[in-house]
Design goal:
- The protein is an alpha+beta fold and 220 residues long.
- The chain has 5 helices and 4 strands, in the order αββααααββ.
- Strand 1 and strand 2 form a beta hairpin.
- The longest helix is centred in the N-terminal third of the chain and has 73 residues.
- The chain is elongated.
Length: 220
Amino acid sequence: MDDKTTKTVEMTAEEQAQFAAFKAEQEKKARQQKRKENREMYAQIVDEQVALAIPELKSLSEQIKTVKETVFGNFKSVLDIKADVMNMTRDGQHSHTFTTSDGMMRLTLGSNTIDAYRDTVEDGIEMVRAYIESLAKDENSRTLVNAVMRLLARDQKGTLKASRVLQLRKMADDSGDETFQEGVRIIEEAYQPAETKQYIRAEYKDEKGWHIIPLSVTDA
């Protein structure tokens, strides 16, 4: 029988260092390749899921739009009857709430609005400002002037807030001054709020109280 011998290959320190560097480089490339494959797999999953979700959400959006238009269309005649029965105009009222006779269901239809004015608002503002500034003669009157000027200040969008005009109206009425009152009246008549988006708020009541029916993806 022949003797089998195992030959041990000894490497120099330099060769060991080169082998270790080679092995580390191979492992690094393997890790990079694995990460690349993972990124590709992730991108593929994202593509698949987004492609599935978008048509569903488009369909949901169209359904919501259709239902919204139907509800507003159905209530158009209701609003006309309400205006006639209540002997009121629909101008200036931007939301309407309807509750069933048994008090168990409630629906609110409305439009979001932003404050806006015709150009004539500047005439009213100038009239009020000129009158108020003419009063600045002592400390008490200067306090009034400062208060009114704050009410005439515009917001970041350059718009006069309607809520402040209501405060101006009260101050003008309390003052009894015709110029002040006329200026505020011009501002009020120039008010022309712009409607933005229509909204629907649906609620129902049970033994636990009122519940809002979520009508958006965020709330559902």
